[in-house]
Design goal:
This protein has helices at 18-22, 65-70, 113-120, 122-132, 144-153, 177-188, 249-265, 296-304, 327-333, 372-385, and strands at residues 10-13, 56-59, 76-79, 97-100, 139-141, 158-166, 169-174, 197-201, 205-215, 221-232, 235-241, 270-279, 284-291, 311-320, 345-348, 358-367, 389-390. By secondary structure, it is of the alpha+beta class. The protein folds into 4 domains: 10-105, no CATH class; 137-201, Dna Ligase, domain 1; 204-297, 2-Layer Sandwich (D-amino Acid Aminotransferase, Chain A, domain 1), CATH 3.30.470.20; 306-390, Alpha-Beta Plaits (2-Layer Sandwich), CATH 3.30.70. The strands form 3 sheets. Strands 9, 10, 11, 12, 13, 14, 15, 16 and 17 form a 9-stranded antiparallel β-sheet that branches. The chain has a 4-stranded parallel β-sheet with strand order 3-2-1-4, with no helix packed on it. The longest helix is centred in the middle third of the chain and has 17 residues, at 249-265. It is globular.
Length: 397
């Protein structure tokens, strides 16, 4: 696909909790299953992984220089620390090309924020699944009574989703009448809010995966590839190139054609990720939800292009830290294992503001096919030897 902005400098920036800004204020909220993730506010550091030479990266806060240097690509960096979406605090861009993680503000070269919010809604994608006759459709409910009926009809094998939830947040498994009653109580205590939720069956799942396309303004599009996803609970934990045995890649690309056409007809263009799953009986739910934005799966695909001989696996390293420990200790632990894709090893992608009692950082592991688990254990051994405490081990694929 021809790049209409070739030769112009790209400015990369983003707000990783974009869904919370797209979400209408008048929607009722589900019961909280935990506090917000403080790491989300600084995940814009990860956008350095998309940068090409000469790009400008603007992050909410300063980034530790050793992290930026670890990408092995020469690009410029600025910070714009201020409340609210970073889009509200950008310097004048002139002839530069805005390339956000997700569209939250109007730019002439981008679709409108209103269109972007619409196509990112799970209500919209669920309606599209029904319209196209694809398997896996849920049921949109608009009152507590409708919620009770939908979950009961599924015999409590149900997931309840907020239309603008992301990565496991605002998604609840409802496996008992007690859990359903708790959700119902919370909704009824919000009489001034409207209810809009999606109730889906909880499928017997074998694998999660995502398909990624780049949709041009004229409606043409390029299939970028598949990523197999690892989730921890309902939160994204890692992405790896999908093995050929997972699914017929050409069949899935063809399945997306009508989906992409509908997204374009709604007025959107740009990166699109479509979450899907393979069930225990090897059948496929091709569209669970649509992410009309950049994504961690797209980042993993982009990093995978750094090497012809190695594959890139995006992984999260969760650590407990003692007072005084931070990102310097993590970088020190990975000394001798670092790689920009030129050899087997790891690239630390973020974590500038990692402090006690701990948190998570994202790592790209470059290794031959079939070696990712071995490299995960090497990384865990390295941070442990450096006096850091891993919180757990989850395979990237």
């Amino acid at each position: 696909m021809t790049d209409p902005y070739a030769g112009r400098r790209r400015v990369r920036f983003g707000t990783f909790d974009a869904e919370s800004w797209w979400r209408p204020d008048d929607l009722a909220v589900l019961p909280s299953v935990g506090s917000g993730d403080p790491a989300v506010g600084t995940m814009d550091e990860l956008l350095a992984g998309f940068c090409a030479p000469g790009d400008l990266l603007i992050t909410r806060q300063q980034v530790f220089p050793d992290i930026l240097a670890g990408y092995g690509v020469a690009f410029d960096h600025q910070s714009a620390d201020a409340p609210g979406p970073i889009e509200q605090h950008l310097p004048p861009l002139g002839n530069q090309v805005p390339t956000p993680y997700a569209v939250l503000a109007p730019f002439p070269s981008l679709p409108s924020p209103e269109v972007v919010a619409q196509v990112n809604s799970k209500t919209w994608s669920n309606s599209l699944v029904l319209e196209l006759g694809l398997p896996g459709a849920g049921r949109v409910v608009r009152s507590p009574d409708e919620l009770v009926a939908a979950v009961t009809d599924l015999d409590f094998h149900a997931l309840v989703k907020d239309p603008y939830g992301v990565s496991g947040r605002s998604l609840l498994e409802v496996g008992t009448p007690g859990v359903l009653r708790a959700i119902e109580r919370v909704l009824r205590k919000q009489p001034d809010k409207r209810v809009e939720l999606i109730v889906q069956p909880k499928y017997p799942k074998k694998h999660d995966f995502s398909g990624h396309v780049l949709l041009a303004r004229d409606g043409s599009w390029e299939f970028l590839g598949l990523q197999q996803m690892t989730n921890k609970g309902f939160r994204h934990f890692g992405s790896s190139p999908a093995p050929t045995a997972l699914i017929d890649k050409d069949w899935y690309a063809d399945t997306l054609a009508d989906v992409v056409a509908a997204v374009h007809a709604a007025g959107y263009w740009g990166p699109v990720g479509v979450d899907a799953m393979v069930l225990d009986d090897d059948s496929v739910v091709p569209v669970l939800e649509i992410n009309a934005r950049q994504s961690l799966g797209l980042l993993a695909l982009h990093l995978n292009r750094r090497s012809e001989d190695l594959t890139a696996h995006l992984w999260q390293l969760e650590l407990n830290l003692a007072p005084g420990q931070g990102i310097r200790d993590v970088l020190h632990a990975l000394t001798g294992l670092a790689s920009t894709g030129d050899r087997p090893g790891a690239m630390l992608l973020n974590g500038t503001h990692l402090t006690a009692p701990g948190g998570r950082v994202h790592v790209a592991i470059f290794c031959p096919d079939g070696h990712v688990t071995q490299w995960q254990h090497r990384l865990l051994a390295a941070v442990t030897a450096a006096g850091l405490t891993p919180r757990g081990m989850t395979d990237a694929a």
